[in-house]
Amino acid sequence: MKQFIAATLVILSAGSAAAMNRDAVPGVLEQAVDGFIRPGYQNFAAATGTLSEAVEAFCAAPDETSYQAATAAFDETVAAWSAIEIVRTGPVLEDHRFERILYYPDRKSIGLKQVQAAIIEQDETALDPDYLPQKSVAMQGLLALEFVLYGTQYETMFEAPDSYRCRYGEAIATNMDRVAGELTAAWEAEDGVADAWKHPGPDNPL
Fold it and tell me: Per the CB 3.0–4.6 Å rule, which of 47, 97, 107, 206 could disulfide with 77?
């Protein structure tokens, strides 16, 4: 009898805990959305905005000062993305946004070769922020811009304003800023993904 009572108490306690956990879910998700996801994408969008402006300024007047500003903005963008890249659900998975920001791992350096080829061949289509998203995801994100700013022969960008390589980097930065804006807008939209996250239940397909 004692064993039966003890077992019953354990089951009831577990059931109560499960019920409490279910009740806590909306609050936890609300904190995740408003305390982490939204601020994370907002910070990333702010960083990409600064990056886009800094790379544009460097291309217009390539010197050590403008280069340092561009690379500092790049570092800030990497840090901002590192804080939010753990979110691998929702709008970031639509339209290949995640890979367009960070194509990793680059197995066999296929992406790197595409970036190098664009610079060598001076592919004009890669300079158009409206067309760049239609190209390989490896050509439009952080790793592509990292090669532009730091990779082999990056110093050629100092030789004259608006070099091909620098304008390509500007297109990459502009494209990422647009993607960041799309992510922020998606999570800020009324009755959008954030609202779905905050109201889980059997009738919520998300």
Answer: 47
Burial class (CB in 10 A: 0-12, 13-18, 19+), 1: exposed
In order of start, what are the domains of the chain with their CATH numbers? 30-193 (1.20.1420.20)
Task: Return the structure tokens found at 144.
Answer: 């592509």
Distance between CA 30 and CA 195 in Å, rounded?
9
DSSP 192: S
On whether the pTM is more than 0.90, the answer is no
Give CA–CA dist 180/100, Å, rounded. Answer: 11
Q: Which two tokens stand for residue 113?
A: 């070769």
- Give me Rg for the CA atoms of the chain: 23
Which residues contact residue 110 at a Cβ distance below 8 angstroms, ignoring those fewer than 6 apart?
138
Q: Of all helices (H) and strands (E), which one includes residue 177?
A: helix 164-188
Q: To the nearest whole percent, how much of the chain has pLDDT over 70?
A: 89
pLDDT tens digit string along 6-25? 433 333 344 444 444 666 77
**Vertex 49 angle, CA 70 and 101, to 5°:** 85
Tell me which long-range contacts 41-44 makes (C-beta under 8 A, separation of at least 24). 41/84, 41/180, 41/183, 41/184, 41/187, 42/184, 43/80, 43/83, 43/84, 44/77, 44/80, 44/81, 44/83, 44/84, 44/180, 44/183, 44/184
Taken as a whole, the chain contains a residue count of 206
